[in-house]
Write a structure and sequence with these properties.
four-stranded antiparallel beta sheet; 175 residues; mainly beta
Length: 175
């Protein structure tokens, strides 16, 4: 399934919110997006449905994410976030997340399928812990101090990592 055809369902969003509230990982799917000439994407009504589902389960959907579409047909492509440039997998995207108005973080998939993230002051793109491998980014959600991010693995589905609020991302598990 290609990233442009994956849809954020209310069920997936509510499962992610429930997982955040009990400490488990859960499914997260990206909101549908529309590519612009600049190569960036904006969320449409799918994001609203996700926020409604998160609110219905008691989670505060205060994180905002934007997916930047990467190049397709090239061996890899480069992107810069917070002054740090990284190289990313052909056909993958960058997930930019504003956990709060002052806490920003971006996620991407390197050509070797490793999962990377960067934030202001990180000193560069850093590989996510626990040796995860993915084909594209998924989505992000937040509930209080807890944060979750998902990635897409071809022929395997979504995998999630959760930071329980201490700045340490947990192991990747199917969500």
């Amino acid at each position: 399934m290609h990233k442009h055809t994956r849809m954020l369902s209310a069920l997936a969003a509510s499962v992610l919110a429930a997982g955040l509230s009990v400490g488990a990982t859960a499914q997260a799917a990206p909101a549908p997006s529309t590519a612009k000439a600049t190569g960036t994407a904006t969320s449409d009504g799918g994001e609203l449905a996700a926020k409604r589902a998160l609110t219905a389960t008691g989670s505060a959907p205060d994180s905002v994410s934007v997916v930047t579409l990467g190049g397709v047909g090239a061996a890899d492509w480069r992107a810069t976030r917070y002054g740090y440039t990284g190289t990313f997998r052909d056909g993958s995207s960058i997930l930019d997340v504003a956990w709060t108005s002052s806490r920003l973080e971006s996620f991407g998939i390197a050509p070797g399928r490793t999962i990377w993230h960067a934030w202001p002051g990180s000193g560069g793109w850093k590989q996510m812990p626990h040796n995860g491998r993915a084909d594209d980014v998924g989505a992000a959600a937040k509930d209080g101090a807890r944060r979750a991010v998902s990635v897409w693995v071809n022929n395997s589905g979504y995998w999630c990592s959760v930071d329980p609020g201490n700045g340490r991302w947990g192991a990747w598990s199917r969500c």
